[in-house]
Model the fold of this input.
Amino acid sequence: QVQLVESGGGLVQPGGSLRLSCAASGVTFTRYTMAWFRQAPGKERAFGAAVSQRTGSSPIPDSVEGRFTISKDKAKNMVYLQMNSLKPEDTALYYCAASGTVIVSQMRVQAGYNYWGLGTQVTVSS
Done:
């Protein structure tokens, strides 16, 4: 049984930083792709970052390139999203996702993931 639990969200001023954490159980990091998606109010869920242990691929969208970094700790079964230079448009509910079958070309697509956490809210505001 795969379970993903996010934490680390909160209120931060523009230009600030946050580190989101995802505790993953029932996941073998050597075989799973882990990802972060986000959903702003009134918008569709959007890709944030991903990392595949199998392929080494780690795509990240242009909107957060240079500001967001995904990492994982295999010993602790944790995935992290380090977010720097936060902007008001980064305000969203952030979800952790996992898949044992997603292919590289589908890593940016939410339909490629079959396990999801409940999300953690990030609000960037002064």
Remarks:
- The mean pLDDT is 93.
